[in-house]
Specification:
InterPro entries: 4pyrrol_syn_uPrphyn_synt_sf (IPR036108), 4pyrrol_synth_uPrphyn_synth (IPR003754), UROS/Hem4 (IPR039793). This is Uroporphyrinogen-III synthase. This protein is α/β, with parallel strands linked by helices. The chain has 9 helices and 11 strands. It has a 6-stranded mixed sheet. It has a 5-stranded parallel sheet with strand order 2-1-9-10-11.
């Protein structure tokens, strides 16, 4: 069956000429975006109950834009003035760049990994005497605490925000040729919103091994996978699949 409509379970990209824009233009398909999950911040009282005292820490580990936003939100709620001496260890350049929303970049001590969390290991070992805070979601990849423990540093995790399943009830009678997922939580959201979901001719596209496992465990048929050596991005995987089925 040809692909004419795609639903991506993430917010629409803010960049004008995104890979999805090029896919829409080239393949003449309709692509909608709808977050299947969203983030909600916890309040300062909940953070205090975790015995988190912001004044104890000399370094902050930031894994995403959400961690940046919610660290500074909690600091404001607690009336804690983040000292200029605070060190920031950012998982990627994108996170470090986003940090500029809150701090004057050139005046701060900011350390950046390449892309994956373990890339920060060398920096952690170099600054092993710091007292680190990891502001995180209630859902944390096992790789993160494993990396921090292996680095032998003094670190504390604080749950500053939670991943929540979005209400998708308005989509109950809307059908798409392809559903695109990027996390196990997205698969969970699909099944909680639509417990009687029947895949039938709907194609499922998944990104990453953990998402593949979640989809397989849920009994879904996976038609499109990324990343692969041939298709390192989801849009490339979609493009390849569309080319194979729409030209028959």
């Amino acid at each position: 069956m040809k692909v004419k409509t795609i639903l991506v379970s993430q917010p629409e990209p803010k960049m004008e000429n995104s890979p999805y824009s090029r896919l829409i233009e080239k393949e003449k398909v309709k692509v909608d975006f709808r977050p299947f999950i969203h983030v909600e911040g916890v309040d300062a009282k909940t953070v205090r109950q975790q015995k988190i005292d912001l004044s104890r820490f000399t370094a902050i580990i930031l894994t995403s834009r959400n961690s940046v936003d919610h660290f500074f939100r909690i600091a404001e709620e607690m009336r804690f003035k983040v000292p200029d001496t605070m060190k920031y260890f950012c998982q990627s350049e994108a996170v470090a760049f986003y940090l500029q929303k809150y701090v004057v970049y050139r005046k701060r001590k900011i350390y950046v990994g390449k892309r994956n969390f373990p890339d920060l290991t060398t920096l952690f070992k170099k600054y092993k005497d710091e007292v680190y805070l990891l502001p995180s979601s209630d859902v944390l990849k096992p790789q993160v605490p494993e990396t921090l423990d292996e680095a032998g540093i003094n670190w504390t995790r604080g749950v500053f925000y939670k991943t929540v399943i979005s209400d998708l009830s308005d989509l109950r009678h809307v059908y798409y040729d392809v559903l695109v997922f990027f996390s196990p939580a997205g698969i969970e959201s699909l099944l909680k919103n639509f417990p009687d979901f029947k895949q039938n001719e709907t194609r499922i596209a998944v990104f990453g091994n953990s998402t593949i496992k979640a989809a397989t465990d849920a009994g879904l048929r996976i038609d499109i996978k990324a990343p692969t050596p041939e298709t390192p991005s989801m849009t490339m995987a979609l493009q390849k699949y569309i080319n194979s089925v729409n030209k028959k």
